[in-house]
Automatic annotation (TrEMBL), chain A:
InterPro entries: ChsH2_C (IPR002878), NA-bd_OB-fold (IPR012340), Thioester_dehydratase-like (IPR052513)
Pfam entry (one): OB_ChsH2_C
Lineage: Archaea, Methanobacteriati, Methanobacteriota, Stenosarchaea group, Halobacteria
SUPFAM superfamilies membership: Nucleic acid-binding proteins
Protein name (Swiss-Prot/TrEMBL): OB-fold domain-containing protein
PANTHER family xrefs: BLR3430 PROTEIN (PTHR34075)
Ranges of residues in domain ChsH2 C-terminal OB-fold: 51-108
TrEMBL record, chain B:
Record GO terms (molecular function): acyltransferase activity, transferring groups other than amino-acyl groups
Keyword DNA repair: no
Domain Thiolase C-terminal: 240-385
NCBIfam families hit by this protein: PRK06064.1
Full protein name: Thiolase domain-containing protein
């Protein structure tokens, strides 16, 4: 890995998930987003607060990727999923389940894992 | 309002030209468009040019002046980048300039060199249309993103891989007589279902190929076309653009493309037409599911009904509203930055009666072009009409 600068709010967010204290940012109208956000793209509110990410989310959609970018070549095949946490959704790798057993609505927890190809950190969901 | 005319069009063959530089590809298309138009090159006032991955594929930024030079023009030249909708955005800006009287003659076009970096390199380059932090780092690829949308669509509205295969079969059939198309090969539903998976539920035949190629069109004001006796019979009568959150997970509905719906509503209102008036469409079928989402956003089908359109023959050349007579991105090929203008080129030819499908669609008067970027965070729609 190159000696890269941290991607501030994103890496802070991954750190928090690693510490089991994941969060999202929410405006007073209940719109949820991933950081960093200074303004809600839905309603323009600038009153955003960090809110704890619920313990478990549900798979909204998923795919098993067979043809990957070079940065994921050794991870292939792998499952990428979008998981619904109520006001916010998160995209991540889904591990710990046979792809044939994954389905929409499946409850999953969130953590941080390593990309096999590069060792870079990645959001990883696992079945609950 | 006087509508800008399409006075000349040009394309390279779409396909694998891995050893041809971007500047050479664009020179071929641009010179063909200038020659086709009959416009004096000295009258061209600007180049609006679309390109997406030039920095990654050719280590070449600042491409627009290079491309103007390649076609022998010394004019202001600007590159438009909106992922796969780059040259659709260039067309829109050209139309607005021509309408406002800022200019009378603009060359629009685009090009992309992709096969020189291989499948893995192109997959990587295409992926950067997504959110790097929150999508690409979670393994999102471009086919993967559309696979996520396809599964969400199936979940909400029903549909199957067979329905998607029917889109691929149709577009391959349409491409057979297109001499510019990359994949001129008849396929069957069984071929599509038996092809290797790329990102389930999408297989290889659900995806457009990786393509090198360029496109160009000379757009002029109606007044200029009349004064110079150019006899251009096709005008761009409506333009629209829509935007959405970049990351797919931030969309309210994962099975819809509202940016394209907004672009379509704006373009239809601009042209004074309704979806029922549309005779033919060229839509952004980078994946089979994308054509389904596109025809729903264009109002050619109700939400949830687009999945059956190809299977039922509605969108075939012989059907009610032919879609992608060129073969679409799926079979014609998808040199990303060239695609938006290539759609305008294809529609213009059909509306002028120059199409292998003329016996089926010879009386078409209204065409619509739908160009989408990323997972449709950018979309442009243009209405083209026969006006003379």
């Amino acid at each position: 890995m190159s000696d890269k600068a941290r991607d501030g709010a994103f890496d802070d967010w991954l750190d928090a998930i690693e510490d089991d204290s994941g969060y999202y940012v929410e405006c007073e109208n209940g719109h949820g987003w991933l950081p960093p956000r200074r303004v809600c793209p839905d309603c323009g509110s600038r009153d955003l607060s960090e809110t704890p990410l619920p313990d478990a989310g549900e798979v909204a959609t998923f795919t098993e990727v067979s043809v990957a970018t070079p940065q994921f070549s050794a991870d292939t095949p792998y499952v990428t999923a979008i998981v619904d946490y109520g006001p916010v959704r998160v995209t991540g790798l889904l591990r710990g389940a046979d792809p044939d057993d994954v389905d929409v609505g499946m409850p999953v927890g969130i953590g941080v894992g390593e990309r096999e190809t590069t060792g870079d950190r990645a959001v990883v969901f696992r079945p609950r | 309002m006087s509508h800008p005319r399409v006075t000349g069009v040009g394309l390279t063959p779409f396909g694998e030209h891995s050893e041809r530089t971007g500047r050479d590809l664009f020179a071929e298309a641009g010179l063909a468009a200038l020659d086709d138009s009959g416009v004096d090159p000295d009258d061209v006032e600007a180049l609006f040019y679309g390109n997406f991955m030039g920095e990654l594929a050719e280590h070449q930024g600042h491409q627009a002046p290079l491309m103007a030079e390649a076609v022998g023009l010394d004019v202001p030249a600007t590159r438009y980048e909106a992922a796969c909708a780059s040259s659709g955005a260039a067309v829109r800006e050209a139309v607005r300039h021509l309408r406002s009287g800022e200019a009378d003659v603009i060359l629009v076009g685009g090009s992309e060199r992709m096969t020189n970096i291989g499948t893995a390199g192109a997959t990587d380059a295409l992926s950067i249309a997504a959110d790097d932090l929150y999508e690409i780092r979670a393994g999102m690829t471009f086919p993967g993103a559309y696979a996520l949308m396809a599964r969400a669509y199936f979940r909400e509205f029903g549909g199957s891989r067979e329905d998607l295969a029917a889109v691929a079969v149709k577009n391959h059939d349409h491409a057979l007589p297109n001499e510019h198309a990359q994949l001129r090969k008849e396929i069957t539903v069984e071929d599509a279902l038996g092809a290797p998976m790329v990102a389930d539920p999408l297989g290889l035949y659900d995806a457009c190929p990786i393509t090198d190629g360029a496109s160009a069109a000379v757009l002029t004001s109606a007044e200029y076309a009349a004064e110079h006796g150019l006899g251009a019979s096709v005008a761009v009568t409506g333009t629209g653009q829509g935007g959405d959150n970049l990351a797919l997970h931030d969309r309210e509905n994962l099975a819809r493309s509202p940016a394209a719906s907004e672009a379509a509503e704006e373009a239809y209102a601009d042209a004074g037409v309704a979806p029922d008036d549309v005779d033919i469409a060229e839509v952004h079928d980078c994946f089979t599911i994308a054509e389904v989402l596109a025809i729903e956003s264009l109002g050619l089908c109700e939400p949830g009904e687009g999945i059956a359109a190809a299977r039922d023959g509605k969108t075939h050349a012989t059907g009610e509203t032919p879609v992608n007579l060129s073969g679409g991105l799926k079979a014609k090929g998808h040199p990303v930055g060239a695609t938006g203008v290539a759609q305008v080129v294809s529609l213009t030819k059909v509306l002028e009666g120059e199409s292998a499908w003329a016996d089926d669609v010879g009386d078409a008067r209204v065409g619509v072009a739908h160009n989408a970027g990323g997972t449709v965070a950018s979309a442009t729609v243009h209405v083209l009409e026969v006006v003379a």
